[in-house]
Design goal:
Order of helices and strands: EHEHEEHEHEHEEEEEHHEEEH
CATH architecture of the largest domain: Alpha-Beta Complex
Shape: globular
Largest sheet: 6 strands, parallel
CATH topology of the largest domain: L-2-Hydroxyisocaproate Dehydrogenase, Chain A, domain 2
Number of strands: 14
Distance between the termini: 32 Å
Helix content: 40-55%
Number of helices: 8
Bound molecules: NADP nicotinamide-adenine-dinucleotide phosphate
Strand order of the largest sheet: 3-2-1-4-5-6
Number of domains: 2
Length: 315
């Protein structure tokens, strides 16, 4: 399987590439950077080769600024763009990043028209829409990382509070990868038992936990300058489900066409079944009235912001 990472000179791109290089199903990895950053990705490739030899992993890694090298990729991870600094919102970088994402999405469509695109650049729900429109791809082939990472963050906090192995926590954050994220606490379970029936629930401060998830990315950025491992492993989770045609359900940013609460023409984090062709199906989910209202608010706000960005870049 061939994977290309665009923005591989960046912190998220290179960390994701390294995670993917270790996977058995990936035997061809392309690290794309701007011409002026080619040394960085060449260095990354050499360093990765050394690490992979220690793990007895054989994978071809190409560092390049030439889009010809992206040809016939099964999946393209798009993480090029300005990150936000501490205190900035994801929207502050929306217009410059939309220009970058649109340009790369067109190049992907030209050089690798059969691939699936996993968008990472923030604000990811808007950038997913930009990539979809600029590439002209079918909606099942373009989706974004956002709420899967938020869901992992929520999973950790629940695991820590209840002192239960993280694998036993089943939870989901939907909506916007941003202030309008909607944690679906009503169907969160531990070992198959709904959270509200689990011992320790009375001491669980739900509102504080949700606030922590909302601020998790910013908090890491404040401490160490950027998020890396979290997004990298979340990208690898999604990419491997696609490449191995696993048919698992993860929350990714996808273009809605009325599948959930009648919401249309906006990319939002929703549960989807993923396989080799990308999104096989958007999975409708039952929400409480409070969750439903929050989801509809997220839809309204992301739609308005998306229109603003699309108009600003004439897409
Ligand atoms: P970074 O370390 O600053 O890397 C940015 C990458 O984008 C570099 O490869 C950089 O190339 C490239 N780039 C910057 N400006 C460009 C331009 N005008 N044209 C082409 N390429 C350009 O940032 P990062 O921490 O990796 O984050 C990358 C993106 O992922 C950001 O938008 C960030 O907000 C987002 N992100 C999303 C999630 C999520 O869950 N969706 C999680 C974490 C981060 P050079 O090396 O040549 O400058």
């Amino acid at each position: 399987m061939k994977v290309s990472v665009i923005g591989a000179s960046g912190r998220v791109g290179k960390a994701a590439a390294f995670c993917l290089a270790e996977e058995n199903s990936v035997n061809n990895l392309v690290l794309i950077a701007r011409k002026e950053s080619i040394d960085k990705v060449e260095g990354e490739a050499l360093d990765m080769y050394d690490a992979l030899a220690a793990k007895d992993v054989n994978v071809k890694i190409t560092a390049s600024y030439d889009f010809e090298d992206v040809k016939n990729s099964d999946i393209v991870v798009l993480s090029a763009g300005q990150p936000r600094s501490s205190g900035m919102s994801r929207m502050d970088v929306a217009i410059p990043n939309a220009k970058i994402v649109a340009e790369y999405a067109r190049a992907i469509a030209k050089f690798s028209p059969e691939s699936v695109i996993l968008v990472v650049t923030n604000p990811v729900d808007i950038m997913t829409h930009v990539a979809l429109k600029a590439s002209g791809f079918d909606k099942h082939k373009v989706f974004g990382l956002g709420n899967h990472l938020d869901s992992l963050r929520l999973k950790n906090l629940i695991s820590q509070h209840f002192n239960i192995h993280v694998s036993e926590i089943h939870t989901r954050v939907m909506g916007e990868h941003g202030d309008n994220m909607v944690p679906i606490m009503s169907s969160t379970s531990i070992g198959g038992i709904l959270l509200k029936y689990f011992k320790g629930y009375d001491d669980f401060d739900m509102d504080r936990t949700v606030e922590k998830v909302k601020n998790a990315g910013n908090y890491v950025i404040k401490k160490k300058g950027a998020t890396e491992y979290g997004p990298a492993f979340a990208i690898s989770n999604i990419a491997m489900i696609v490449l191995d045609d696993e048919k698992k359900i993860l929350t990714v940013s996808a273009l809605l066409d009325g599948e959930i609460e009648g919401v249309e023409d906006v990319c939002l984090g929703v549960p989807v079944k993923l396989g080799i062709d990308g999104i096989e199906r958007i999975i409708p989910i039952i929400m409480t009235e409070r969750e439903r209202k929050a989801f509809l608010k997220a839809a309204d706000e992301v739609k308005t912001k998306t229109e603003e960005v699309m108009n600003a870049i004439d897409l």
